[in-house]
Amino acid sequence: MKKTLTLLFLILVGCIQLIADNNTPLIYKINIKQEIGPVTWQYLQNGLHLAEKEKADYILIEMNTYGGNVVEADSMRTAILNSKIPVYVFINNNAASAGALIAIACDKIFMRNSANIGAATVVDALGEKAPDKYQSYMRSLIRSTAESHGKDTLISQSNDTILKWKRDPRIAEAMVDERVVIPILTDTTKVLTLTANEAVSVGYCDGIAENISEVIVKHMNIEDYEIHTYNPTIFDYIKNILTNGIVQSILIMIIIGGIYIELKTPGIGLPIAMAITAALLYFTPLYMDGYAQNWEIIIFVIGLILIAFEIFVIPGFGVAGISGIVLTIAGLFLSLVGNVDFDFTGVSSDQTLKSLVTVIVGVFMSFILIITLISRIGKEGSLFRNIALTSDQEGFISVPEEQKLMIGKIGHAATVLRPSGKVIIDGEYYDAVANQGFIESGKNIKVIKYESSQLYVVEIKV
Question: What backbone torsions phi and psi does residue 413 show, to the nearest 5 degrees?
Fold first, then answer.
């Protein structure tokens, strides 16, 4: 009997401990400490999902950002407003521009004493104020975000019922437009930025604290709690690298350069494999983030097909080649811009300019790569000597040695040589390379040398 009572007592203690553990509030912490963009949007998405999966009681965002892209900021504030779990934010230092919009979406705002919130005017890549249509969109966006928290019902001394906004939409709008005057604040002729104390006085801050622990204990009134922090996965880090502008430019260089080299060398090998890999690394993270749409990738592929068609099928350089180049570059560019079927609403000029520069730099780098390789492929002592077949390679020789006997013969260009193409000599077609510059189709040519399994020709007058 005594053993039975002891066992029951231990079971009871264990149950009480289990219940106590289950009653300990779980706070899920997400860091937003960089520019608002695809990376921070992905972090917030993942964090909100995991917080819901772990049945967190609260979500606490620690923020320190100078802002970023409006598109991602709008998605982030919408996700916060739709969260079933209360979302609080602790502004560790800055919540500027897009960061202010996201902070205002949270259920409660806490700030460090030296922190600031505001300055949400839309600017371009040079820091200049964007046209008013962008400001109008941002004014409406930040105003509706403030309004989403509703009104408090107050009873005045004369027993009148007064409805007062929990977060005054006019104050939020003043963070975008300097024309909105807030009488209770000083310096109202400028775009509004609030200090922690000013934010408290106008209802845009629910408490001042110096760290996360003070926020939880002092302002959330939770003494015993469990806190989990969202930590990015290896995949997140890899995607961050792949969506870096410099890396994207390098991938564009490899895509274009690899395709060109493969078209100019026999067989299917390393260049095309590198181009395909670079294309996958370029488009995959953009597709997963909702930037690259199916039709944008299709445009890119059609562009490549047209370029190949122009090189191998159609003599000269015309509509197919130009269209192919335009479609390829358009596919690369549009995949970087968050448009939906050519609707660029909410796409900032900063994002557009950044995407354009990324593509231009990548294309320019690919031209440098192509020119460098053309001058070195097949040359003695060159790192790229073995990319082209040479007569001293073991195994077999792809071009008959009889072509050496063609030095001095005269024919004409069957296609444009830029610098390689087709020539006709004695009624037969041969691959040839212009020794200097380009040679137009139909021009008379003369074979001057045979090197690296290639005929080299010059234009002549007959």
Answer: -75, 125
Whole-number Å distance between alpha carbons of 171 and 162: 19
User: If we measure between CA atoms, which residue out of 51, 136, 149 comes closest to residue 109?
Assistant: 149
Coil, strand or helix at 11? helix
| Residue 303 pLDDT grade (very low, low, confident, very high; cuts 50, 70, 90) | confident
| Pairwise CA distance, residues 175 & 166, whole Å | 17
Round to whole Å and give the CA distance between 118 and 189.
Answer: 14
Record the tokens describing residue 457, joined without a space.
């020709």
Longest dimension (CA), the chain: 121
The C-alpha atoms of residue 163 and residue 154 are separated, in whole angstroms, by 6
Tell me the per-residue pLDDT of 325-362, one tens digit each, with 9 for 90 and over.
888 888 888 888 766 666 665 566 666 777 888 888 88
Place of tokens 């009148």: 160
Tell me how far CA of residue 150 lies from CA of 118, 138, 202, 263, in angstroms. Answer: 20, 20, 15, 63
- Measure the CA–CA gap between 355 and 69, rounded to whole angstroms: 12
Q: Which residues contact 438 (CB under 8 A, 6 or more apart)?
A: 416, 417, 418, 419
Distance CA 228, CA 144 (A): 31
Average pLDDT value over all residues in the chain: 81
Backbone angles phi, psi at 60, to 5 degrees: -125, 115
Instruction: Give me the residue label for tokens 């944008």.
Output: 296
> What is the 8-class DSSP label of residue 55?
T
Sign of the Cα torsion 359, 362, 364, 370 reads negative
- Return the SS3 of 123: strand
Question: Which residue is listed with tokens 């802002």?
Answer: 67
Which tokens belong to 340? Answer: 């939906």
Q: Is 237 helix (H, G, I), strand (E, B) or coil?
A: helix
pLDDT in tens, 213-258: 999 999 999 989 999 999 887 877 787 788 778 888 899 888 888 8
Q: How far, CA to CA in Å, does 241 sit from each of 43, 246, 262, 274, 350? A: 14, 9, 27, 18, 20
Q: How far, in Å, CA of 144 to CA of 120, rounded?
A: 14
pLDDT at residue number 396 = 46
In sequence order, the β-bridge partners of residue 445 are: 411, 459
- Model-wide pTM > 0.85: no
HSE of 428 in the Cβ direction (CA atoms, 13 Å)?
Answer: 7
DSSP helix/strand/coil, 420: strand
